[in-house]
Amino acid sequence: MDGSGARLVRILRENWLFLLIIAGIVGVFLFLRTPASAVSSVAEVDAILQDGQPTLIEFYTNT
After folding, report:
1. Which positions ≥6 away from 12 have C-beta within 8 Å?
2. Is there a domain that residue 9 lies in?
3. Rounded-to-integer distance, Cα 2 and Cα 15, Å
4. Taking a C-beta distance cutoff of 8 angstroms, is the pair 49, 55 a contact?
5. N or C: which end of the chain has fewer CB within 10 A?
6. Left if phi > 0, otherwise alpha if psi is -120 to 50, otherwise beta: which for 13?
7. pLDDT per position as a tens digit, 14-23
8. Angstrom distance (rounded) from CA 16 to CA 10
């Protein structure tokens, strides 16, 4: 094995727990995140709200 390959293996062996935790956090984020909505206009929202079905509205701002 060349020097860079051996170095990579050493780094992975020394930091496997940290890398596993980071991968777990990323996996949980991807699993639990809220998907984008298919609603594209205020008129569509009004139609959905007046449909007679229970509706959950979640507001999110990225500021």
Report:
1. 19
2. yes
3. 20
4. yes
5. C
6. alpha
7. 999 999 999 9
8. 10
> How many CA atoms lie within 13 Å of 22's alpha carbon, on the beta-carbon side?
5
Please write the tens of the pLDDT for every residue from 15-60.
Answer: 999 999 999 999 999 999 888 888 889 899 889 889 888 888 888 7
Question: Is residue 45 a part of any domain in this protein?
Answer: yes
Give me the domain span that covers residue 40.
3-49
In Å, how far from its chain's centre is CA 58?
Answer: 17
Q: What is the CA radius of gyration of the chain?
A: 23
At 30, the amino acid letter reads: L
Question: Can you say how many angstroms the Cα of residue 51 is from the centroid of all Cα atoms in its chain?
Answer: 30
What is the reported pTM?
A: 0.56
